[in-house]
């Protein structure tokens, strides 16, 4: 994550001194608007909308894309639970799909999980690891499905010359404290579609019909939520954005160093990557779960199955199909009986039990990472 420092403090000080904390009703051309304009330019996308979390970005994008009750949305078995919750918030049902060794949604299992009720795919770029978007786009076109990219854990990453989050119909970013851009909490919807942007902006702001916007004259107002951000969030993000590409550059420069060392043993293999030329995240696959458990004892190494909050078996409200009120339970609106079980994505569980994430240490100098690579090679061997 980028360090929070003087530039963020200075921007926040200016907002407080001005006394205009709202982004609307006086703050329209403030930091939040400037951040969106800069984000659009940097990501190469027509529209960016800042919201209060990555979850809100996913929900807004699904609502904007017309996903609703009875629809099925394909989500990966390895992701933060918000990916699966977002379809439910618009009345749709998450259908859980295996990941492959790249730790991203498996295109072959996508094909197996498509039904007449499938309306969207939500590929998740986990741990700065990009999905096989060529295959996913091909499947979506064949079956006329929407693609809502969850790029919350890969803000700013590239896939074959395009920024993730800008390839599908819409994308979602998170600016949570642990993400590549950090405003504590926050998010954004990205899209090149004028109507989808208009609908996302309406949905994220219950009072959108009172504001003067472009792109909204052809869309009748509908009921929305309150996912807006304040100028305080906008100020932090505006200050953070110039730090994003240097952070990604540091991650990319360290990837080949670690691969060079860890490729010298037959005790593990480098996980496949869907765009190795732009790799900014590294995971390795051990021969057995016990081998992975031992390797994870090294500093800067985590076995993925042990970070259980991102594993579908630990999505308790999803697995039990519980909502705040049973009358508002989307599973009751499904067009077929949907059941979840702990072994429904057993291939994912096997992969996660044998896979470790290796930190690329963007905060450390290159010589240190060379030493780190040699140390991990020795530990693996």
TrEMBL record:
One of its GO terms (molecular function) is transaminase activity. The modification N6-(pyridoxal phosphate)lysine is found at residue 179. CDD domains: AHBA_syn. GO terms for biological process: polysaccharide biosynthetic process. Gene3D superfamilies: Aspartate Aminotransferase, domain 1 (3.90.1150.10), Type I PLP-dependent aspartate aminotransferase-like (Major domain) (3.40.640.10). Keywords: Aminotransferase, Pyridoxal phosphate, Transferase. The active site is at 179 (proton acceptor). Belongs to the DegT/DnrJ/EryC1 family. This is Aminotransferase. It comes from Rhodopseudomonas palustris.
């Amino acid at each position: 994550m980028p360090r929070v420092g003087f530039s963020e403090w200075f921007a926040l000080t200016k907002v407080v001194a001005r006394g205009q904390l709202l982004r609307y009703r006086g703050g329209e051309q403030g930091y939040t608007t400037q951040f969106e304009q800069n984000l659009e330019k940097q990501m190469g996308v027509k529209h960016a909308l800042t919201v209060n979390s990555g979850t809100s970005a996913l929900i807004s994008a699904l609502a904007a894309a017309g996903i609703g009750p009875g629809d099925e949305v394909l989500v990966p078995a390895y992701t933060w639970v918000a990916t699966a919750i977002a379809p439910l918030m618009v009345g749709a049902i998450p259908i859980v799909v295996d990941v492959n060794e790249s730790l991203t949604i498996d295109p072959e299992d996508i094909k197996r999980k498509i039904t007449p009720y499938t309306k969207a795919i939500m590929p998740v770029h986990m741990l700065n690891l990009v999905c096989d978007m060529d295959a996913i786009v091909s499947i979506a076109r064949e079956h006329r499905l929407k693609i809502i990219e969850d790029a919350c854990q890969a803000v700013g990453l590239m896939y074959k010359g395009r920024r993730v989050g800008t390839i599908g119909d819409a994308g979602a970013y998170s600016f949570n404290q642990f993400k590549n851009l950090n405003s504590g909490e926050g998010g954004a919807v990205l899209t090149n579609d004028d109507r989808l942007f208009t609908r996302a902006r309406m949905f994220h702001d219950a009072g959108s019909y009172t504001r003067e916007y472009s792109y909204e004259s052809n869309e009748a107002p509908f009921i929305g939520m309150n996912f807006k951000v304040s100028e305080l969030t906008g100020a932090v993000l505006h200050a953070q954005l110039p730090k994003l590409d240097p952070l990604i550059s540091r991650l990319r420069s360290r990837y080949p160093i670690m691969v060079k060392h860890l490729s010298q043993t037959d005790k593990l293999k480098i996980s496949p990557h869907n765009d190795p030329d732009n790799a900014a995240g590294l995971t390795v696959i051990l021969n057995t779960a016990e081998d992975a458990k031992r390797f994870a004892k090294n500093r800067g190494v985590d076995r993925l199955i042990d970070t259980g909050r991102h594993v579908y078996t630990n999505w308790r409200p999803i697995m039990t199909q519980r909502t705040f009120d049973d009358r508002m339970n989307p599973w009751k609106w499904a067009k077929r009986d949907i059941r979840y079980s702990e072994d429904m994505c057993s291939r994912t569980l096997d992969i996660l039990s044998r896979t470790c994430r290796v930190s690329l240490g963007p905060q450390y100098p290159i010589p240190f990472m060379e030493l780190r690579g040699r140390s991990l090679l020795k530990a693996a061997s």
